[in-house]
Amino acid sequence: MASKIADPVLGERDQRLIAALQCDGRLTAERAGEVLGLSARTVHRGWQALMADGVCRVITLPERSDAIGALLLRIRVLGGKLDALTAALAARPDIPFIDVSTSGDEILAVSWTRPGTRDQLVFRELPATRAVTSFTADTILHVFAEATDWRHAVLTDGERAALTPVRSPEHKESDDADRAIIAALQDDARIAAATVAARTGYPESTVRRRIALLADTGRLLTHVVVDPKRLGLAIDANVMVRVAPGRLDAVGTALAGHPAVHGLFATTGANNLHIAVWVRDLAHLYRFLTQDLGGLGVQGAETVIIGHAVKRPGRPAEPRLASPSAPA
User: Fold this and answer.
1) InterPro entries from the entry (predicted)?
2) Which of 14, 24, 37, 286 could form a disulfide with 10 if both were Cys (CB 3.0 to 4.6 A apart)?
3) Exposed, middle or buried by CB within 10 Å (0-12, 13-18, 19+), for 259?
């Protein structure tokens, strides 16, 4: 099978329209146009074209229980066995992220688990898989930033602030109605309240009120699904860093707002800080490692460049494309 020809990088206006949706997944065209200096019609047509072409989608992520934790898996695989193992992992609902390194012999994945329990995948299934030559499973101790927090750096600070709703600090527990509404919005966070009402059986007035309250209290967690390469970010990399324990929180907090960072976790293991980055090219990755990380005084770093993102929230698992010289 031939390699897929890369899709072109989007123009500045389209990138700004996508960045606006990252601030508020249910943003109106009128408000976006007011802040971005565009007509509401231009914004609406731009979003409509981007979504119709499959360039981006806005989804709603389900609420996650505090009782659920996560493991970062690094799995070394025998040659020729990679595709079968990634397909098996991708079929599991408890594994939302799967990446394959450019070297083609390592899988990096996230697995949901219950902290303090003997995880069956780690203790039984992976050790019994003959295709696996070695693996590590590090527990995520603290989340500094994740994919829903990432913002493409094409808006000004003022524009981003104007487009980002102010959340209420009030904590509310979700009930069955809230969960049904969130589920109805899962595949398309921008559908009309009338459509949600038809899907859930709740009155439209109730749905409108509940959506507003869910958004206001931060329980309606929207996420823009877009290939970072379409945004000009060609390099996807994971950087595993060793930080002195007394510096871990300060370093994590400092990096959480970095425009390249779309995932940042304190973990167990020899490398206690895991950083996922999107950058324009290898020169920008080098600058991130030597200047941004170097300036924070980290003790060491290991970098893995991702060759293929197999599975991520909102994107169906994709088979790895063979190189032109490889058999179909």
Assistant:
1) AsnC-type_HTH_dom, Dimeric_a/b-barrel, Tscrpt_reg_AsnC-like, Tscrpt_reg_AsnC/Lrp_C, WH-like_DNA-bd_sf, WH_DNA-bd_sf
2) 14
3) middle
